[in-house]
Amino acid sequence: MLNAMKNENIIILGIESSCDETGVAIVNDKHEILSNQLYTQIDQHAVYGGVVPEIAARAHVEKIDILVKEALKEANLTLNDIDGIAATAGPGLIGGLFVGTSFAKTLSLATDKPFIPVNHLEGHALMSRLTHKTEFPFLLLLVSGGHSQILLVRDVADYELIGTTIDDAVGEAFDKTAKLLGLPYPGGAYIEKFSKEGNPKRFQLPRPLIHEDNCNFSYSGLKSAVRKIVMDLGDNITEQDKYDICASFQKTVVDIIVNKIQRALDKVFAPSINAVVLSGGVARNTPIREAVEKLAEKNGVECHIPDPALCTDNGVMIAWAGLENYKLEREGNLDFKPKPRWPLTELV
Ligand code: KG4
Ligand code: ZN
Predict the structure, then answer these.
(1) Residues with beta carbon < 5 A to ion ligand 2?
(2) pLDDT over 70 for what percent of the chain?
(3) Residue ranges of the domains in the chain?
């Protein structure tokens, strides 16, 4: 049972370190972002074509104290002004999770402020409650490098899984497709850019599960189909071929997402929810944003999508989810262990 207790002038510092971004931010309960510091390690991983956990953990160690200092300076605050220290405690790469939670626990111990372990997915899920004041319940499409899920969000820590991927996450499909085309990691943004010059009708790609009456996704067949096209084109592949593959791929992803969100809206009964929310790194993608906005409008539901910079991993989402949990007295204690695997449905 969640009790709303703490309600005024709350200021929370949040730390994100679950993957390849070190983020530190400070937010308050007036929906203000007081500081937002982000260090992206992408350049360090790009040469390997994906995130190297050991490099990621080391880079978090090198940056985390600097970013906390900068975040306090940017907000013109000291640690005394902070009510709680939130950090991503999972899911994610264990090395990074240890760096962020250990740092947060140390600050908590030194300042006698509560430590708030935050689920990274809940960070994405609640982001629009800061930016758009989204009311519960809402329907969430969470699309990132590691997840593709449709959830009914009833409250903080209260999630019902409506659909999920049975193989690859959508961001993973973007990144693997980009890799097949020789584009840099992470490839999502490059695919979006290349798609602008391409013909989305040139290649017919599979839309797995689209005719099945459920809200699940499957993306590995799509990736294999792109691999076959690339292999068939071989060394003769032109820039225009690449543009057309990207456009066809992106159009297919949009179609699948629209189909599955419509099924979810039918299932949860659209008028009973307050908004459709899009979140996670793939929610930066403009055609996906526009398609979901259009679909929500057609169903007479509001559509809330955070600014692109708040869709990819950042400290603000962790600070905000920390604040929402703090308000409900959902703080952790110092022996809370990071969880590499931690589904949203296991928060209570
Ligand atoms: O949420 P996020 O920053 O990290 C995870 O929690 O996974 O999401 C990263 C993912 C990557 O797969 C990246 O390629 C994808 O988001 N992404 C995009 C775009 N920008 C980032 N995918 C499609 N279009 C974009 N513009
Ligand atoms: Zn994420």
Answers:
(1) 144, 313
(2) 98
(3) 4-128+310-346, 137-305
